[in-house]
Write a structure and sequence with these properties.
The structure holds two protein chains of two kinds.
Chain A lengths: L7 E9 L4 H14 L4 E6 L8 E9 L10 E6 L5 H6 L1 E10 L14 E5 L1 H8 L3 H20 L3 H11 L6 H19 L17 E5 H11 L4 E4 L6 H14 L11 E4 L3 H13 L4 E5 L1 H17 L3 E7 L16 H6 L8 E3 L4 H18 L2 E7 H5 L1 E5 L17 H6 L29 E3 L13 H17 L8 E3 L7 E6 L2 H14 L4 E6 L1 E2 L3 H8 L3 E6 L5 H9 L7 E5 L8 H15 L3
Parallel strand pairs in A: 1-4, 4-5, 5-6, 8-9, 8-10, 10-11, 11-13, 12-13, 17-18, 17-20, 20-21
Antiparallel strand pairs in A: 1-3, 2-3, 7-14, 12-19, 16-18
Chain B lengths: L37 H15 L7 E5 L3 H4 L9 E4 L5 H11 L4 E7 H5 L3 H10 L3 E7 L2 E2 L5 E2 L22 H7 L4 E6 L3 H13 L3 E7 L20 H7 L19 E5 L5 E5 L10 H14 L2 E2 L1 E5 L6 H4 L12 H4 L3 H7 L5
Parallel strand pairs in B: 1-2, 1-3, 3-4, 4-8, 7-8, 10-11
Antiparallel strand pairs in B: 5-6, 7-12, 9-10
Helix pairs in contact in B: 1-7, 3-5, 6-9
The chains are: A alpha/beta, B alpha/beta.
């Protein structure tokens, strides 16, 4: 874990946003991936379009861990504004590469790192005529230098450039020329490769690099969603972008030219919720992607959908709050909000995907659960999963999948019964039948957020009111065995301590658990994947002396939810809280737990 | 209080429509509004219009927000699905529902609080999208359920029941709708059933968003001196009731007037409103002209009624979104699932 080494190091590219570096960084990452070496990408970007510092981290992780490493071993410093901090954050023994067109002696201030100057601007200014292309080619030139220093296969890079500029072929030689400039300079002036570098493996076969929002958008397509509404908000926008892109490609009827889907850009999140609920009430599989501020705005409608029992899927891609917070930084800060969103007694279902693979699966699962239970379901992702590229198993879709549309009565069903009552628990399983507008006069009913009886009629009678809300509580509890069950990782020997986490914390917690175990601290780990909580969670906490609840917020929201919603003794739960807005890294988790354990066993 | 079932009274030789249904087949639950409320007249006009159009009730969807007017969706077409949603948010709900099945008729019922204050944004965007629905804005210039606050349609200088004077300019829904591309704008009066029924029928027939702003007086909070929507000061008789918390039993307002004339219409509470049929030379296809006339009428306190503007040329949401004939909920999954081969192909770009 102390790296760096072969296939075990972290590369950080520091640039200014709006300079076109994203495609260069993507190219570097894909080149590593195609050499069969697992790699993790984290984009640390500002809430801005052009001119502010942005970083792209690539962790080359030969052993396949998916989390972040907060240590940086190689910096490509392309932003003079952040030279000082980029240098400061470099681990001892690290390497910094910068554009030496304008030499910066102050960069040599650290004796324990190596600074490599490549005259990127000078070389590109000589080689290319157009100002804009000089900026873009500078990116390709650092790709070339990095390729030489990190032992990347140039033929792989060339293939990637060909794919990138497919349809704009004349750009291929220009870009390859820029790659060669950096590559040749590095080869001629530095010892290549560095001590830490990439060495081909065969560990990416059957894997893909995909971000969670794209995967979730695809999941909604394959899950049969036909209606989506949203108000653009970072970091959820790319989820709807993906849904739209794939719908336009695969959901337009070839015979009629009509769309087998409908997407509406709402005027705000209040409308996005209303649109989604209206469409769901009318019978379409519907969803709305948003982030924390959107959930705040949707809250009134969420309570409406809960009480009137309309399926509602909300994909909350969490970002740092409160208020506007840090819109492009990650947290798990909406757990409590989503569990109980809206006024009055309300409680909802939550799914916690941990990576893009689960985003794909859970997006469809959320649609199934919402229609099965006729209630709001939160798909609770975050920026780290949603907007970063993760290496996951190639997505596959079960051939025999059938959407769970829940209890919807057809015209024929209605013909056979005397009277339809919307909220009557006919089957004794807490879930009533619903009907869709236009089906049959017998199925007509009036949906109301005001007090209603089990027959669907208006009431202000306490007993009649309680009968309905008590059933809603029972219905919610039943969902505990329907949401994805928790995943247990046992230590290799009996463990006094346990760890609990959800969502994007999983990658760091998994790695921390392994490393702690190797260091003589065995820990069992339970990853929660759904709310309401499965009974296995109570048993897990019961079975351990102490359980570390690792999460990405200040207020221990998950831990407090466990205290409220399980039988766990409060004293057993120890919060491990990370809320800087950076993705959680394993070093933080290890340090927090080691520190906590030292306090318990003084020397 | 609970909801009351309206008894169905059958009469001998009562007229039937093309579906063999009687007018009573278009009723809903018993109204729980104040006796004589203008909204009940609008409800009756809606039922009458659907009856006369021989619409199958099950093929109609009723939606509303919150407020006195929004309660009325239970009072007609009991065999239609209905939804009483969230305050000011009916337009978004209706838009979502309408997107699913373009073969049904959507009728929204709202008020001046629901549409012009809390829901102004949502109404505006439903107009912009040209959602295929008829939108009844039952406008009484006052918040009834919360007992008498000014609404955004109150005129400057009009006074509240407790004496405060409104100093803020009114939002005229018709002018606003015209300014953002509305394709059907009408105004009527709950006491003029003949005009209202014909406008509703025209609105249902219109493809796209049909706004009908209906002046629909509030008998409980609108019958005092100084209210420009009641003119109670004109008539001493009802002036007495103003100061009591008792709601006097009143008869339904009826009004009939000749075209081209401006005339005061007596409200049941003793007030009167200047109403004027549209001029013979009024061109309801001239958007700018309509807006100009409406702005002028604000100066004279006249209330222009009738079909103020119509544009059948703009595509409704269903066309704009290329919605399929089959409702979205009935598309077979085989048409929605791109298949395993596509999933493999898509992922080529992720390697």
């Amino acid at each position: 874990m102390n790296g760096p080494g072969i296939n075990d190091f972290t590369l950080r590219v520091a640039t200014v946003n709006g300079t076109g570096s994203a495609s260069a960084n993507g190219l570097l990452m894909k080149a590593i991936f195609r050499m069969g070496v697992p790699v993790v990408g984290k984009n640390v970007f500002p809430s801005n379009i052009q001119g502010l510092p942005t970083w792209y981290e690539m962790r080359v992780t030969g052993d396949g861990y998916a989390g972040r490493d907060s240590q940086t071993h190689f910096v490509i410093a392309m932003n003079p504004e952040t030279y000082a901090s980029d240098l400061a954050e470099l681990a001892p023994g690290g390497v910094l590469l910068y554009d030496s067109t304008w030499p910066r002696p102050q960069l040599l201030a650290r004796q324990d790192v190596t600074v490599l100057g490549v005259p990127l601007s000078a070389m590109c200014n000589d080689a290319f005529k157009v100002a804009r292309s000089r900026i873009l080619m500078k990116n390709m030139a650092y790709v070339g230098a990095a390729a030489a220093l990190l032992n990347l296969d140039l033929s792989v890079i060339e293939q990637l450039v060909r794919e990138m500029f497919s349809g704009k072929e004349k750009l291929i030689p220009l870009n390859m020329q820029a790659v060669a400039l950096g590559h040749d300079y590095a080869k001629a002036n530095f010892k290549c490769p560095l001590n830490f570098h990439v060495s081909p493996l065969d560990k990416t076969r059957g894997k893909v690099m995909i971000d969670g929002n794209t995967a979730a958008g695809l999941g909604a397509v394959f899950g049969g969603a036909t209606f989506g509404a949203w108000y653009p908000i970072t970091p959820s926008t790319s989820l709807m972008d993906a849904f739209q892109k794939y719908c336009e490609e695969y959901r337009v009827d070839p015979d009629t030219g009509q769309n087998n889907f409908c997407i509406v850009q709402a005027e705000d999140e209040l409308a996005a919720a209303g649109l989604t609920i209206g469409a769901a009430w009318a019978g379409a599989r519907s969803f709305t992607p948003t982030s924390g501020p959107g959930v705040s705005l949707m809250s009134e409608f969420i309570g409406f959908a809960y009480y009137t029992e309309v399926p509602l899927v909300i994909c909350d891609i969490q970002r740092v709050g409160p208020s506007t917070g840090m819109p492009t930084r990650t947290q798990q800060c909406d757990i409590q909000l989503c569990a109980y969103a809206s006024h009055g007694d309300t409680r909802h279902l939550i799914l916690f995907p941990a990576d893009p693979g689960e985003c794909f699966e859970f997006a469809a699962k959320a649609l199934d659960l919402a229609e099965h239970f006729q209630t709001p379901v939160f798909f609770l992702s975050d920026i780290d999963i949603g907007m970063n590229d993760w290496m996951v198993d190639e997505l596959t879709w079960p051939e025999d999948y059938v959407p769970d549309r829940g209890k919807v009565m057809s015209a024929e069903d209605l013909e056979e019964i005397n009277t339809f009552y919307r909220y009557l628990d006919v089957d004794g399983d807490t879930i009533p039948y619903r009907t869709l507008p236009g089906t049959h006069a017998k199925g007509a009913y009036f949906l109301r957020g005001s007090g209603h009886t089990k027959l669907g009629r208006y009431t202000e009678n306490g007993d009649e009111y309680k009968e309905v809300v008590d059933r809603l509580y029972e219905k919610w509890k039943r969902a505990a065995t329907f949401v994805p069950s928790p995943i247990l990782t046992k230590a290799d020997r009996p463990a006094r301590y346990g760890m609990i986490a959800v969502g994007s914390s999983d990658a760091a917690v998994t790695e921390a658990r392994d490393r702690l175990e190797a260091a003589g601290i065995p820990m069992d780990y339970l990853r929660i994947r759904g709310f309401p909580f499965n009974k296995a969670i109570d048993a897990f906490i019961e079975a351990h002396d102490e359980v570390f609840v690792v999460e990405q917020n200040r207020d221990a929201q998950l831990m407090n939810l466990l205290i409220t919603e399980t039988s766990a003794a409060k004293e057993k739960l120890v919060p491990v809280l990370h809320y800087s807005g950076e993705p959680l890294d394993f070093r933080f988790v290890i340090e927090a737990i080691e520190t906590a354990l030292k306090v318990r066993t003084p020397a | 209080m609970t909801s009351f079932v309206k008894p169905k009274i059958r009469r001998l030789n009562e007229p039937k429509n093309e579906l063999g249904k009687t007018r009573a087949d278009y009723d809903g639950a018993m109204s729980t509004l104040c006796a004589g409320c203008g909204h009940d007249s609008v409800t009756a006009a809606l039922a009458r219009a659907f009856f006369e159009l021989s619409k199958e009730p099950k093929d109609v969807v009723k939606v509303s927000g919150i407020g006195c007017s929004s309660k009325t969706t239970t009072y007609f077409l009991k065999d239609a699905h209905g939804a009483n949603t969230v305050h000011g948010r009916m337009p978004s709900f209706a838009t979502g529902a309408a997107a699913v099945n373009k073969n049904l008729t959507y009728v929204g019922v709202s008020g001046d609080g629901d549409s012009l204050s809390i829901g102004l944004g949502q109404m505006a965007h439903a107009i912009r999208r040209n959602v295929d629905m008829i939108y009844m804005l039952e406008n009484n210039g006052v918040y009834g359920l919360t007992k008498g606050q000014f609404s955004a349609s109150s005129d400057i200088g009009s006074t509240a029941k407790k004496g405060a004077t409104n100093t803020l300019p009114p939002i005229d829904p018709a002018i606003m709708a015209l300014s953002i591309g509305a394709t059907f704008v009408a105004r009527s009066f709950s006491g003029d059933k003949a005009q209202l029924v014909s406008l509703i029928k025209a609105g249902i027939a219109h493809r796209g968003f049909a706004l009908i702003d209906v002046i629909s007086p509030c008998v409980s909070f609108n019958d005092h001196k100084g209210s420009t929507k009641s003119y109670a000061h004109t008539y001493q008789y009802y002036h007495k009731a103003v100061h009591a918390d008792y709601v006097p039993p009143s008869e339904e307002i009826t009004a009939a007037y000749a075209e081209g004339e401006a005339m005061p219409v007596e409200l049941h509470d003793g007030g009167s409103i200047l109403l004027r049929k549209l001029d013979a030379d009024y061109d309801p296809t001239d958007r700018a002209g309509a807006m100009s006339k409406l702005l002028q009428s604000q100066q004279t306190q006249e209330i222009l009624t009738g079909l103020l503007y119509i544009d059948e040329s703009r595509p409704a949401m269903a066309e704009h979104k290329k919605l399929p004939e089959t409702p979205l909920h009935s598309l077979p999954y085989s048409k929605l699932n791109p298949g395993a081969d596509v999933l493999r192909k898509i992922q080529d770009e992720f390697r």
